Amino acid sequence: MAERNALIERGMLILSQLKPAFLRHHSDSGGSDGQILNFRRIWELAILLTSIVTLVPLILITSVDYQYTKRSIESENSLRTLRVASNIRHSISFFFHERLAALSFIVRDSSYEELADPEKLEQILLNLRQSFSGFADLGLINQSGLQVSYVGPYNLLGKNYDGQPWFEEVQEKGFHISDVFLGFRDAPHLVIAVKRQLADGQFYVLRTAFDTERFNGLIANFDLSGRGEAFVINQKGIIQSPSRRNAKLFEKVEFAVPPHSERTEVMDVMINDESFLVCSAYIPDTPYILIVLKEKEELIKVWKGTRLRLIGFLVVSIVVILLVILGVSTYMVNNMYTLDQRRLAALHKVEYSNKLASIGRLAAGIAHEINNPLAIINEKAGLIKDLFTYTKTYQNDEKIIAPLTSIISSVERCGKITRRLLGFARHIDDSVIDTVDVVAVIEEVLSFLKKEAEYRSIAIKVEIADQIPPLQCDRGKLQQIFLNIVNNAFAAMDVGGKLDIKVSYDSQERILVKVRDNGYGISQEDIGKIFEPFFSTKKGSGGTGLGLSVTYGLVQEIGGKIGVESVVGEGTTFTVALPLTASTADRE
Amino acid sequence: MRVLLVDDEKEFVATLAERLSYRGIEADFALGGDDALRMVGGVNYDLAVLDMKMPGISGLQLKKRLAEICPTLKFIFLTGHGSEEDYRAGSRESVYYLVKPISIDTLVGKMHEAIQKEGTTHG
């Protein structure tokens, strides 16, 4: 359980570190940060607006393309099916016209007597069979509807067709093509009859039956890709040629008979909950309607693949665009944030330096004002002492000499204090590279805090390694660095704290100053932020969050390095590494 | 050794002159630049101890004019002010730049050292 919690904590820590700095920024991190821009809002707006202006056109274009491609594919499918239907229609039409023309030629070329002659009729049937397969029989029918001559497998001689609808139609139209029917032979066949009108008003009819095998083969020869099929129905919707999927021969189709049209037509129909594309074509001079049927599912397979690619492209594009927008916006806003932080830090540093300079000037002014009266007290007391010292009577009178010596030594103490103040103030304003004794600077800084340490019972221990060389450095900056670090340590400790300062010299020719306190310590979460401007853990107790950031800047300016280690509840150690020769370049 | 003390604080400068006389140093004092310029013409001083900030002629200006009149004169600045500009200018233009209050023994020691130093104004 503990391991799991540690893992979760670690994960959260990594996540929080991955988070851009401006998202980690909290305005309540201490002090007034003077932040004018809301970077989170800028970031959100940048992402939102960029996403809208890039994604909306992309989605619109893709949607238009989607519709256009869908329509194109559907139209292409319809056209292809129409083309096939039209071709089959022409072939069937040609098939019937060919046979009709052959019969018309025979009926015009031969006289009634010739056709009435069974031998002659037999010869004609033989010729017909040689030219066109499928002819079963041939018969001549006179004006009264009586079959006067017949050659074929059945005994139809003498059969009277008068009054039958086909006979009436042939009288009216001059020819007749029948529906497919089984008849006596119990095999699907159809009848074609042609009328010969004589000059005297008489007429006779040549009638033939032929099986539909050739006709069916003609339709089957057309290649209908996928699960498409073609078949013929009559005008009542009865199936006239075999159909794989639909009803059996002579049964009614499962959809409405298409209305009459001279052209090939397309419509969508539902058969057994399946959607079909139906092409219909009325075959001229016949009772037949060609039907070409294609499953829509099969037809839109191509569209489905295209659609999948289109949607895939859209999704991938959106993801890539969003990632790029997110990355670029985050990068740019983070840079803006960093620059703004630097600007603010620079502004505050100037403010801080100005404040220090003002304090310095004030201290110098006070010191000067005090020094003159001190000098008078010193001289007057000195004169009295001189008077007594140079007069033998009082030379050894301790009652007089001792208080005077005490006055003079007190004045000397005051003088030391004002001189120290003046010395400190002197280094605030200017930036002069000088030979500096680090230990002296540290002792000077500690002398300012000595009284506070006494009042709070803070034990200060200073360990100095042998032979610490002097530095070429800006004394004022060094004073500020140590004053800030020691002040920070004091603020972190309660009454009875311990402050250890170690000064050493390392192999890289750097002076290392370690300032260790046994105060509250800094959490791992906060330790990475303590040198950031405005970051302060002294919430509500006057921390500006600038001390350590200014210290960091000053250490950088003199070419040094500053590091920090801390354990919550145990204390914090600041390590300042100072090169013997300070960088003179102004890093700001 | 004959010394000229110049300071606008009479209480200070008069007392200092008296104390120096106890230590065998003959010291005159002037309360401003004009007095000092007048006095230096008549007496051959070895050393001038000048305040930096005085009404009328400042310590630095006075030093220049005194040096013109008496090129062999040595100078010590003794002032209560410790600004950086004063410190730099004072150190450049004199043998010593000292801050008040100062122990008489230290001052006397510095005076002797200044007299001993080569050169006219600073060492």
Secondary structure elements and pairings:
The complex is a heterodimer of chains A (588) and B (123).
Chain A: H1 2-18, H2 21-24, H3 39-109, H4 112-116, H5 118-131, E1 135-141, E2 147-151, H6 165-173, E3 175-177, E4 189-197, E5 203-211, H7 213-220, E6 229-234, E7 265-271, E8 274-282, E9 288-295, H8 296-299, H9 301-389, H10 398-429, E10 433-436, H11 438-455, E11 459-464, E12 471-474, H12 475-492, E13 498-505, E14 510-517, H13 524-527, H14 547-557, E15 561-567, E16 571-579
Helix pairs in contact in A: 3-9, 9-10, 10-12, 11-12, 12-14
Chain B: E1 2-6, H1 10-22, E2 26-30, H2 33-42, E3 47-50, H3 59-69, E4 74-79, H4 84-93, E5 96-99, H5 104-116
Parallel strand pairs in B: 1-2, 1-3, 3-4, 4-5
Rg from alpha-carbon coordinates of chain A: 57 Å
Structural shape of chain A: rod-shaped
Please report the number of helical segments of chain A: 14
Which residues of chain A form runs of ≥5 with pLDDT under 50? 27-32, 584-588
How much of the polypeptide of chain A forms β-strand, as a percent range? 15-25%
* General shape of chain B: globular
Oligomer: heterodimer
- Cα-to-Cα separation, first versus last residue of chain B: 18 Å
The secondary-structure class of chain B comes to alpha/beta
Distance between the termini of chain A: 50 Å
- Which structural category do the helix and sheet elements of chain A fall into? alpha+beta
Low-confidence stretches of chain B: none
Mean pLDDT of chain B: 87
Quick summary of this structure?
Chain A has 588 residues and is an alpha+beta fold.
